[in-house]
Design goal:
Helix content: 25-40%
Order of helices and strands: HEHEHHEEHEE
Largest sheet: 6 strands, mixed
Structural class: alpha+beta
Distance between the termini: 34 Å
Number of helices: 5
Length: 149
């Protein structure tokens, strides 16, 4: 029994540490960092630009755009025709930061939780990764979120 308690504590610390690795910054700061690193055009990053940003939930979703699909499939290293891809990442959500809109791919599980816990115009902490750029559009992936206290 003690072994399971230790394992559960270890896993809970890993989950906490995972979100702590996301650098607190604005999305515009992430774009500036990637731009200064020489990224532009069609690019898929492997550097792990992970950010913790304060965003506003709009409640708007749409099917995954071609630009997001291209970057996301290259980032994940899978074929976009892979059957589970459409089920896991079929949508993007519109979030705003200081009046600027960003359409971001989001997994079905994270989107479902957002729809349960957030209302339109709620501010929250989003854990996002800057995956790349396609067609002059920076592609951020929503990995998770924390509602505002």
């Amino acid at each position: 029994m003690k072994k399971w308690i230790v394992l559960m504590l270890l896993f809970s610390q890993c989950a906490f540490a995972k979100w702590e690795a996301y650098f607190p910054a604005k999305l515009s700061d992430g774009v500036s960092i990637a731009s200064r690193a020489g990224h532009g055009g069609f690019a898929v990053f492997k550097e792990g630009y992970a950010f913790r940003a304060k965003l506003t939930y709009t409640g708007e979703i749409r099917p995954l755009s071609i630009a997001s699909q291209q970057v996301l499939t290259r980032f994940l290293g899978i074929d976009r025709d892979f059957a589970l891809f459409g089920k896991q990442y079929g949508n993007e959500i519109r979030l705003t930061e200081e009046g600027k809109s960003y359409w971001m791919p989001v997994s079905f599980d994270v989107l479902t939780e957002m729809q349960k816990k957030l209302r339109k115009d709620d501010r929250f902490t989003a854990y996002v990764r800057l995956l790349g750029e396609s067609g002059n559009r920076w592609i951020f992936l929503v990995d998770g979120f924390s509602p505002a206290p």
